Amino acid sequence: MGDNRVLKIVDKLCSEGSLSEISFGRHFEKHFNRPMPSIDELKEIMHLLRSVIFPGYFGSPDLTASSQTFYVGATLDTVEKKLNEQILRGFCFFCEDEECKECSHKSDGLAGKFIEQLPRIRHLLSTDAVAAYQGDPAAKGESETVFCYPSIRALVNHRTAHELYKLGVPLIPRIISEMAHSETGIDIHPGAQIGERFFMDHGTGIVVGETTIIGRNVRLYQGVTLGAKSFPLDKDGHPVKGVPRHPIVEDDVIIYAGATILGRITIGKGSTIGGNVWLTESVPAGSKITQHQ
């Protein structure tokens, strides 16, 4: 390709008119002097967090009991610094102030507050690993589920993203969730609330919406959707944000492959939902719902 032809293409791609055609261009123009969040840095942060939450499984395979304290402490220090920068960039991404004066104030200390939640996150993930072992007869132990299962991989990202979401961090939680979606085929919005001992068997194609609430000891199989039935619109015809619109799944529920459960309905405690069921109404505790009722 000739130099002149390349220069013409570059000019078209970088011209003001081209960039302003869609909203991403306006964002890009606004951020010329503000570094945007880095997906590579966030991937590194998640790698480091996995090595802290499950030391020896991820990160250094040669970790010993005597070196663990030093490794975890040094790694958390690195995570906090890296995460603090990405959180700041997340706030700046949506900031309308050209000088971005308030973003440092808004982001200050949030990485540290997240780090404080890591013991609880690890507890939840440990219960998830136990649930995976107990829920799958093919599993040889909890350690195998930590190493191999997409459910655990996705939940490390989700439980991380959910804590950042609760802290009011913009954009970064969604990026972390979408990393897991790309890696596992499991799509969980960071706003979804998920109790302990959660297991997604096989996992591929599972979708869990933003306002979903899932209790303890729940098991989902591949292809399950916990979604919204409809989207309330404002006076301008745009979807209203943050309205509860996804299911509540109570404790001890099993939902089999391909089931689609839509709207702000409740699946009562101890219920079993069969494969490929389409459900838009609440069911009481102990229900057994199949296609052939």
Please provide a brief summary of the model.
The chain has about 290 residues and is an alpha/beta fold. It has 11 helices and 14 strands. The protein is globular.
Low-confidence stretches: none
CATH-scheme architecture of the largest domain: Orthogonal Bundle
Mean pLDDT across the residues is: 91
Q: N- to C-terminal separation?
A: 65 Å
Tally of DSSP β-strands: 14
Count of alpha and pi helical runs: 11
Q: Quick one: biggest sheet?
A: 5 strands, parallel
CATH homologous superfamily name of the largest domain?
A: serine acetyltransferase, domain 1
Radius of gyration, in Å, reads 22 Å
- Proportion of strand residues: 5-15%
Could you give the order of the helices and strands? HHHHHHHHHHHEEEEEEEEEEEEEE
**Tally of domains:** 2
- According to CATH, the fold-level topology of the largest domain is serine acetyltransferase, domain 1
Kindly state the percentage of residues in helix.
40-55%
- The global form is globular
Q: Looking across the biggest beta sheet, what order are the strands in? A: 1-4-7-10-13
What is the CATH class of the largest domain?
Answer: Mainly Alpha
Structural class: alpha/beta
